[in-house]
Design brief:
Jelly Rolls, 7-stranded antiparallel sheet, 8-stranded antiparallel sheet, 3 helices, rod-shaped, mainly beta, about 40% strand, Immunoglobulin-like
Length: about 500
């Protein structure tokens, strides 16, 4: 044999070996999400969002807490996208506030009040807590601040209007929250109606000096039934006072009534330097302010159903690329299903797995799903991030076509033989027969209509056939995927059953 012929034979043998190996052990395949693959295959995202991540590809992190308006919400400003975050009966009349996504406590942004003389000016309209002539009710004013200076005189919140005293003289009415020696002071001047003097002054002052460049939650509550005003910083009581006739807890409350001489004005951040986030006014006393960046505690993502192409495919390994700053964490699970019906009816539990480790060898099916739970760190400030997901699986390819099929005619019968296929998961064979070439819808055999299932053997005698009639046969193997997923058909063979005497002639 020439050298060229030997090389050709060698190439044929190598290709044959590769084909046999692929069919024997399946084809390596993979599923990817995140990175260049994108997150289109994620079917469920609970309390999670997409943000720019590694390589400027989106990654999945916990969704930051944010207030949700309810029936008692009077005003809510998220500072996520500027004026569109205003909810409630207030009209913007002036705005020099910028929005940044670089410095924030919750959501996607915060308000920047750097060198802003005007701040954010709002005019209360009908049904607002500060609408003209509105009789008072219990209320809460709260916000997050990250001051840059904490200079005395900076104004955080200012409400102003005018009222008349008992002599008819016009006097100013104000509610102010200002900075004094690095502490916040709440002053209510003529805001509460005193039936004796028509004037009043109630002050609540924090006792702890605040440092610049740190976020703190500030909340003032007023109880209309007792007249008690309480000021909290990070849910710790900083100061209190009573809006009562006696000025203490033993007097009748003096009720807040907003002036009706003008429409009034509510201004946020006048002469203030720093950041503000999540400003809310509620027509009730808030007892559970949102103080954790991830108030809901955890988030979850879940992929769509991933199709491995054929029953009996093996899910080998799942890799998760993630970051877990501090003691934040992720927990990973999967489900695997035999077929599509199984995905609908199955109540099976999620199975935990360790990313990057090989799954048990019997992790086989046709479909799978992946779930990842995300947990913040103990401080509630840091979220894990999921950068990408990669699952490696081996598709269970159909069996090879049986070879070397032969037919031996008999009296009303045909005996078929074929070479056994050496793939380890072969469960049996299907024998097809019919009276036309390539059309295998025979029904005459006493073994049953075409195709006839054969297990534990590589031969079959088909009885009950008509002598002298020409029949066509082909054989296919089936594996662990089931009898409904056979492999390729063998070459067709034909034979004619005849009595022994006719065969001898």
């Amino acid at each position: 044999m020439s050298i060229e012929k030997r090389r050709t034979v060698k190439k044929i043998l190598i290709i044959t070996y590769i084909l046999i190996a692929i069919h024997s052990f399946g084809a390596e395949s993979g599923f990817s999400a995140g990175g260049r693959s994108g997150w289109g295959s994620i079917g469920r995202m609970d309390n999670t969002i997409l943000v720019p991540g590694k390589g400027n590809y989106p990654e999945i992190v916990l969704k930051s807490s944010a207030y949700v308006p309810d029936k008692d919400t009077d005003l809510l400003i998220h500072f996520d996208s500027g004026q569109s975050d205003i909810t409630g009966p207030y009209r913007i009349t002036g705005n020099t506030v910028k929005i940044t996504d670089k410095v924030r406590i919750f959501g996607q942004g915060s308000g920047v009040f750097i060198n802003t003389l005007e701040g954010l000016s709002l005019e209360p309209e009908e049904k607002a807590l500060f609408a003209p002539g509105n009789p008072g009710s219990s209320f809460t004013i709260e916000f997050w601040l990250k001051p840059s200076l904490m200079d005395t005189g900076e104004e955080i919140v200012t409400y102003s209007n005018s009222v008349r005293d008992k002599t008819g003289r016009i006097i100013p009415q104000t509610l102010k929250c200002t900075v004094d020696n690095r502490k916040l002071v709440w002053e209510f001047r003529n805001f509460f109606f005193n039936p004796e003097t028509y004037t009043s002054l109630v002050t609540v002052k924090g006792y702890k000096a605040l440092l610049p460049d740190r976020w703190h939650h500030h909340m003032l509550t007023y109880n209309v039934n007792s007249g008690l005003l309480e000021y909290y910083v990070d849910d710790m009581l900083e100061g209190n006072a009573y809006a009562t006739e006696s000025g203490g807890d033993n007097g009748d409350p003096i009720i807040p009534i907003t002036g009706s001489l003008t429409t009034g004005s509510l201004v946020l951040g006048k002469n203030y330097h720093g950041f503000m986030d999540e400003f809310r006014i509620s027509k009730k006393i808030i007892t559970d302010p949102v103080l954790s960046k991830f108030q809901n505690g955890y988030g979850r993502i879940e992929t769509d159903l991933i199709d491995m192409g054929r029953k009996g495919s093996s899910l080998n390994r799942i890799d998760i690329s993630s970051g877990t700053p501090g003691d934040s964490d992720i927990q990973c699970y999967y489900k695997i299903f035999e077929d599509y019906t199984d995905t609908i009816n199955s109540g099976r539990n999620w199975i935990p797995f360790s990313p990057g480790e090989y799954l048990p060898s019997d992790t086989c099916g046709m479909f799978f799903k992946i779930r990842i739970d995300l947990f913040p760190d103990g401080s509630g400030k840091n979220s894990p991030a999921v950068h990408s997901i990669r699952a490696d699986y081996r598709k269970n390819l159909p069996p090879l076509a049986p070879g070397y099929i032969s037919a031996e005619a008999g009296d009303g019968e045909i005996k078929l033989n074929w070479k056994r296929i050496g793939e380890p998961d072969i469960k049996g064979y299907l024998v097809y027969y019919g009276t036309k070439s390539g059309v295998y819808f025979g029904k005459e055999s006493s073994e049953g209509p075409s195709p006839i299932a054969v297990t534990g053997s590589n031969s079959l005698t088909i009885h009950g056939l008509t002598n002298g009639k020409l029949y066509y046969f082909a054989v296919a193997a089936f594996d662990s995927a089931g009898i409904q997923y056979p492999g390729a058909l063998s070459e067709e063979i034909s034979a004619r059953p005849l009595p022994a005497s006719n065969r001898d002639n």
